[in-house]
Design brief:
alpha+beta; four-stranded antiparallel beta sheet; four-stranded mixed beta sheet; about 45% helix; Mlr2759 protein; DUF6638
């Protein structure tokens, strides 16, 4: 799923889409970026200023060329452009795979010295190369166990550094090599471009990385979780290749089957069940209840201005719409869950309707798949637009496209006054996440 090239200004103005990006407005950096575009067979940008994310993706250039996938053809073998080492601190705002951000971070971390040295003189670009050129079915996705960063540079500083390295080795190993004037002249030429390669590590050390658990936009959205003895695919059963191969290695779960998905997350230790130890301090159930009520208001009165809504107003609305609240069932369920946890210290989850179980759990914070698990949970609780925004931006933007103008303003307002005020504190309190 690709973001549309243009999004309403309300999201951009409040940095809820394409926020915290790096402005590129220096002519020499724009020139370098254009060299990378040319290497990909793309036209140069005419913009005098644009923003980029960690991968080098620019929403302004996507708008200019009318292609949000200009760095992501076929949504596989993702391209990247690195102008500066500081890109490591940026988000990734457009990708078909949820782990692109982590893979870029690992590549830039492991090869920091080479990237520092290369970007002084050159632009680094290339592809995160998978083992498949195009994804036609689920089996193609499952065949991607690792990725390799194919790294190039516009002035071929990388190639020249490798050539200089070989000549230096020859000079050391062949007694008469120092008499070869042509070789020595070439070494001087290369050193002018590369500098002292004994000091500057110009060639990346590690370019191959594991491709572990992820979400991908292919086939309407698909999750892959990896455990030691089993890989689990969660998607729409209509996805090509669903349940077709390797049943001894791959478990296929329908994303429409709340019971099976929940049991998988619980049995593999990916979720925290509702216990007083974290529920009471986090305010998690209160947050979920408020999101449920806000969604009911939206459905009942889509054009209502909710700018100055406070808890007293919400309470009054709940009381005056008791029948609607009872029919929906989620608000009474959350209140009952809160009472049971206060009395027993936990909730008897086996007694809970499968779809509602997702309202009262969160990902286990110290599990490596915590963010991905919270993303999956958010697919079962679409009313909680705050969780959708934090963990599932593609889902949030798709939802947002269907909102009325009044509800869009309200959603932006809530995100600004809750999550955006202090992201880390908010994630820590509600989800136990500190990173």
């Amino acid at each position: 799923m690709s973001h549309p090239a243009k999004k309403p200004d309300l999201l951009r103005d409040n940095e809820l889409i394409y926020g915290r990006l790096l402005i590129v407005d220096e002519p020499h950096l724009i020139q370098r970026y254009n060299k990378a575009l040319a290497a990909f067979g793309l036209p140069p940008t005419k913009l005098k200023s644009f923003q980029i994310d960690r991968t080098g993706f620019s929403p302004e250039i996507a708008d200019e060329c009318g292609d949000p996938d200009y760095l992501d053809p076929n949504e596989v073998n993702r391209r990247f452009i690195i102008l500066t080492p500081s890109q490591i601190d940026l988000p990734v705002v457009h990708t078909a795979f949820s782990n692109t951000s982590q893979l870029m971070f690992e590549f830039m971390s492991k090869n920091q010295r080479a990237i520092d040295a290369l970007t002084i003189k050159d632009v680094i670009y290339g592809e995160i190369e998978d083992s498949v050129p195009k994804v036609n079915d689920i089996e193609d996705l499952l065949s991607i166990n690792q990725v390799e960063f194919k790294v190039l540079s516009a002035e071929d500083v990388l190639g020249k550094a490798a050539e200089l390295g070989k000549l230096v080795d020859r000079l050391r190993q062949e007694p008469d090599a120092w008499r070869d004037d042509a070789m020595l002249t070439r070494m001087v030429e290369l050193a002018k471009i590369c500098g002292d390669i004994r000091e500057n590590a110009l060639v990346p050390d590690q370019v191959i990385f594991r491709h572990n658990a992820y979400w991908t936009s292919h086939f309407g959205g698909l999750y892959v979780f990896v455990d030691p003895d089993m890989t689990t695919v969660i998607s729409d059963p209509a996805a090509p290749g669903f349940r077709r191969s390797r049943p001894w290695q791959v478990s296929y779960l329908s994303i429409n089957d709340a019971d099976k998905v929940f049991k998988f997350l619980a049995s593999t230790g990916r979720i925290e069940l509702p216990r007083a130890s974290w529920i009471e301090a986090s305010g998690y159930l209160e947050h979920r209840a408020e999101m449920v009520v806000r969604a009911l208001i939206r459905d009942t009165e889509p054009n209502r201005n909710l700018t100055d809504v406070d808890k007293v107003w919400l309470q009054t609305w709940i009381q005056s719409h008791a029948d609607l609240i009872t029919k929906d069932g989620n608000f009474p369920f959350l209140n009952a869950a809160k009472r049971e946890i206060a009395q027993l210290g936990h909730l008897k989850i086996e007694d809970v309707f499968p779809q509602q179980r997702f309202l009262v759990v969160r990902a286990k914070p110290d599990h490596p798949d915590a963010w991905l698990t919270n993303r999956l949970i958010s697919d079962f609780v679409p009313t909680d637009f705050v969780s959708r925004y934090i963990f599932n931006k593609q889902g949030f933007y798709k939802d947002y496209d269907g909102f009325s103008d009044a509800w869009r303003s309200h959603v932006v307002d809530v995100l600004k006054t809750t999550y955006l005020k202090d992201k880390v504190a908010f994630r820590t309190r509600l989800y136990g996440l500190t990173d």
